[in-house]
């Protein structure tokens, strides 16, 4: 790890005495106080609800500069990756650390294709799931259930990839497509080995209902969307995955937990919530001012969905790419989507409003992606599943990094207790 330690670099005056702490520095000049000694030397802990200023690890996968709107993976700018790579190429980069050469890519893609099937027992399991489940609930529990199928095989690594990793990348889209079809009373479709990753997912969902040229346009857009979703360093779901893995739980348990975390509307679930919000605006006559006022009203829990980000204090660079994908997709498909105009007008009003300007609230990745999915005919409830398919690569990259980290420890935050002081026990008859 390229982590530089500056010994005794930080001095802290605490209760009249000075303690000296080390500082660590990453390759983009990000600095952190090494707080481990803080408690052993002073008995004091660092309280940081929501972990807004807590570094949980050093990582070599993704760099974000939220003030400047910069994101790169393993040193490659996201916009270049989205413009030039397939999703599987980026997944390889995140996990292996380098872009694959032709041979490496052929092997990796071959492994994914070879595992792009749902065996009879897995189909049987899926067939017993209530069709009215949310697909994220199904996905989380089916991924966890994969432990029963593959959890204890004790396999060797294959072409440097763990087979669990390959399976999760290969089978997640098929599980999602199976859900979509079963809910509509349609049968399972086998993956087509001649198709690319996103194309195969769309084919497994829609079958031959989509003409080939249209399918290619949609697949091209989806590959880009999967890439912009692929990783975002220590976000809520990725930190969840790392945390579950820290207890020694297996990869399926960790990823199942990550899916649960992503589902929430403050995280990946925001893409579904954005479309609900835009549709509500359309249905109620397009009154954007009321929506903006509602979002600013502190007595109202409503927030402008797809706006704001813990790290970005400027425009989310992923939202820029998502907007380009939407424009390109709608033009190529020849689709008119009134929600785009509503979204753009909402963005214009919000980004000129003092409330949003003062708090640095800009569109995030979820603001435009739902419009692209809608234009492809993907139902709203599946939007966060699309995010999951992309983020799977990031989660797995972080798991591999975490498991290889010889300094890893079980993740176990502390707390400040504010409950009742210790008191005598009261037997039930006296209560
Ligand atoms: N609408 C209105 N006000 C907002 C919004 C919003 N979307 N986002 C933040 N604010 C306000 C907060 O109320 C707070 O105001 P205050 O300073 O007067 O109290 C201030 O901006 C700072 O916001 P925090 O809630 O402290 O920011 P935090 O980093 O905790 O939350 C989050 C970030 C969860 C993304 C938040 O901006 C939000 O809820 N956005 C809407 C949901 C969303 O789009 N989530 C997707 C995020 S991207 C992703 O996870 C893939």
List the helices and strands and how they pair.
Elements: E1 4-14, E2 17-25, E3 31-33, H1 36-42, E4 62-65, E5 70-73, E6 76-77, H2 78-84, H3 87-96, H4 102-114, H5 120-127, H6 135-150, H7 163-183, H8 197-206, H9 212-229, H10 236-246, H11 251-263, H12 270-283, H13 288-296, H14 317-333, H15 338-352, H16 354-358, H17 366-375, H18 383-404
Antiparallel strand pairs: 1-2, 2-3, 4-5, 5-6
Helix pairs in contact: 2-9, 3-18, 4-7, 6-7, 6-11, 7-8, 7-18, 8-9, 9-14, 9-18, 10-11, 10-18, 11-18, 12-17, 14-17
The structure holds acetyl coenzyme *A (ACO).
Detailed description of the structure:
With 431 residues, the protein is mainly alpha-helical. Helix content is 52%, strand content 8%. The strands form 2 sheets. A 3-stranded antiparallel beta sheet has the order 1-2-3, with helices on one face. Strands 4-5-6 form a 3-stranded antiparallel beta sheet. Strand 4 (62-65) and strand 5 form a beta hairpin. Helix 6 (135-150) crosses helix 7. The model has no long low-confidence stretch (mean pLDDT 93). The structure holds acetyl coenzyme *A (ACO). Residues 50, 235, 266-268, 270, 295, 303-310, 359, 361, 364-366 line the site of acetyl coenzyme *A.
